Write the C-alpha cells for this entry.
Amino acid sequence: MTAWEELYESCSKCEKCELHKTRTNCVFGTGSQSSDVLFVGEAPGEKEDLSGVPFVGAAGKLLDKYLYAVGIDRERVYIANILKCRPPKNRDPKPEEEEACIGYLREQVKLLNPKVIICLGRISAMKLIKPDFKITQEHGKWFKKGNYLMTAVYHPAALLRDPRKKEDMMADMENIKEKLEELSV
Ligand code: URA
C-alpha cells in the first residue's frame, strides 16, 4: 500500500469524533497527489457525504466555475477539507472535531508538500493561517508559513448567500493564478 492509501484507509475507519456515527463516506480529498497547489475547504456537505468527493454540491459547482474562469485545472490541484466527515445539517465544525481531524490534513500536506495552500473560507483560514483571520479584510492577502505560501478566498457557499462578494472572489482568483504562473506551478 502507498502512504496515500494507508492514510485514506485509516481516515475512512476513523472514530476519533462523533461525526463518524452519521457519515455515509469519509471525504478524504481529490485531485493530483503530485500537485504544488492545495485547496482546503471546511467540511463535507450532503452531496459530498453521499459521494465521498469534496466540493461536488452547489458550492463546488461555483468553485469549478472560478477555477475554469482563471484556467486552473481541477484535476491538476488537490482539494481537501479541514473535516473529513459531514457535520449534521452542515453546522460549523466544533473545535474538538477540528482537533480530532486535523492530523489527517497535516499528513496530506506532508505527502503532497505543496508550494501554495489556498483556504476556502473563514473556518479553513482560521485553522490554517491564524486563529484571528478576518476573511472580509484579509481575503486575497499572501502569508508565508514555513515552506508554504498561503492565502484565503471567500467560501463559495458565502458567494451563493451574498453575490456582492463575487467581484472580490474573481479578483482573488486572478491574483492566485498570477502567483502560480510566477512560481511556475
Ligand atoms: N463545503 C466545503 O467546505 N467543503 C466541501 O467539500 C463542500 C462544501
Summary: The pocket of uracil is lined by residues 41-45, 48, 54-55, 57, 59-60, 81, 120, 157 (CB under 6 Å).
